[in-house]
Amino acid sequence: MNDLKELEKKSIYIIREAYAQFKNVVVLWSTGKDSTTALALCRKAFDGKIPFPVVHIDTSYKFPEMYEFRDRIAKEWGFDLHVVRNEEALRKGMGPHKGKLVCCNALKTEALKQYILRNKVDAVIVAIRRDEHGIRAKERVFSPRDENFRWAYKEQEPEMWDIYLSQSKDKTHVRVHPMLEWTEIDVWRYVRKENLPVNPLYFARNGKRYRSLGCQPCTVPIESNAKTVDEIIEELKKTDIPERSGRAQDKERAYMMQKLRSLGYM
Amino acid sequence: MKEKMNVVVIGHIDHGKSTLLGRLLYDSGTIKKRVLEEIRKTVEESFGKFEYAHILDTLQEEREGHMTIDIMHTWFSTDKREYTFIDCPGHHEFVRNMLTGASKAEGAILVVSVVEGVEDQTREHALLAKFVGIGQFLIAVNKMDAVKWKREEYERIKKEVTEMLEEIGVKKFVFVPISAIQGDNIFKKSRHMDWQGKTLVEVMDEFFEVPKKKGNEPNLGVVQYSFDDKIVGRVESGSFKRGDELLFEPSGLRGVVEEMSVCGEPCEEASSGDVVELRVSGMKGKVSRGEVFAHAYLPKKKEEIIGEIFTFTELFPGKGYVLHRGTAQVKCRISEILEKMDPRKLSKTKGGVVEKSMLARVRISMEEPIVIEDFTKVPSLGRFVITGPEGIVCAGKYVG
Ligand SMILES: Nc1nc2c(ncn2[C@@H]2O[C@H](COP(=O)(O)OP(=O)(O)OP(=O)(O)O)[C@@H](O)[C@H]2O)c(=O)[nH]1
Question: For the whole model, what pTM was predicted?
Fold first, then answer.
């Protein structure tokens, strides 16, 4: 269990570093608990007003609850929401039935790539955490991507102490990861402390709830009776189930997450 | 709330770092059964055989190539502390990754195989861990099973490592004989070595100390950015109160703190580590990113420094580089190489450039003055990296 105040300070420092060092920053928001926390941190970092766009990658396969939640929070918090879709792939009928890796890559990674190129984005704030996945545990705070969006995970640049460098030769953009040190329980404790809005899909209905939110066809709920944030925290203290076990990308095939991420997935 | 500590696991390739951590997570039940099953399945599906090291080595290339490539973070708690372990690659090509990991840690576990003893990266990792600021080393003498648990063998390696550590100037260290592969003296006491009383975990809790704030530190902070009369940054040491008079360097501007907030919440005082927004009155100019603010202390402003550096790529005297100290950036040149050392052999060498992967003392000339403090007094204002057009060239600290 981490000291939430310490985590908050470090994350805000990183978010402000991104803002100070880059021209075109965006923050990704899936409407899930982690990226909603990232938005809350951005709001704190800038006096309640996020000074850059909030990007939602819409695969069109998200849960209806996610769209409702997205539009409600966007209005309440009043930020500049950019919804991004790979329209061409959708028109050609892209979907999970074509293969999960192909679909994730086209509807998420490719959609983001198009947006980044179009808007000359040079920094993307992403709310990934090290404890989510063995591959994410290898990430740096400032993590550059080349023009093909690739993550050179075998030759990452050194990142010394807390000196975060924006300069990266032929790199197109930098992924900024302000929440690497947070754990799943930390996020929920922060949600409770700050009274952050929570997508209803996280709470149990008929003995099931979602622990991690993705696209509807590729996400399954877990058995749970946790109906409140407190109950979720209690459940997590005891559980034996990995957080992303309900997400098809992680399990489907060996090293799928590694492949996806090396191609530019979050 | 339990004490928290980051511990880096270092040592020569194949001496058993990942196996040690894998075994620790396994024996202590920290790794969830289902996660373990998933790893086992993944490894077996690609025709491998499960090893404890696979819990840490998550990349396909790492598992199939039987070696760690990049650092891995993992978590373990005792009754006393919550540890974050940073597992490092031992291969000499990945020293940069090891350094990235070590720079976030407060203690080190140095794994030395009792069969091979001190090798190149044993020395290099120990020296570099000390270089980034680590002062306490737990030496895990591993593979005791391979020498039939013989105490003489352990004592022999202990002597060899002690001499090496003394040569590089490490003062605080302790030894534990273990077998990572069999789990002896890691989480559970060994049945094979009755002459050793404690497990690695017990020794970790007793031996390591979490560095405390010293008190009486200078009041210093850095500027991330500013607009109008508002300054955004972080307190690096000491503390600041509303009403304090601030001196900004290198600009020399002065002002008084009218209002302050930490993480967006108004407050009267902010201390080391706090991210602050200050509204400052009476300023006769604009403060820039990278400036240092001080109260009741005169920051060290330098145009030339002596730095101790470790090179990631070759470094050429005379060539233009950029020095980054926290949020500050300034153009610089290396004006003189005073000393250089091969950290693998602990031998001094001579020559006109600093080759890749060398430790050196160099004189650095800046185009404009920069604030820099003693690394031992205010670490975050005493360390820097230098970049060239190709990226990061070296990491360093101010020594005089
Ligand atoms: N006999 C014996 N072999 C061991 C022990 N610990 C590790 N090994 C073996 O040593 C080899 C290397 O172990 P790793 O844990 O991968 O070594 P490492 O230090 O993490 O290597 P890098 O991360 O690549 O630097 C493997 O074949 C292990 O099975 C031990 O206690 N006894």
Answer: 0.95
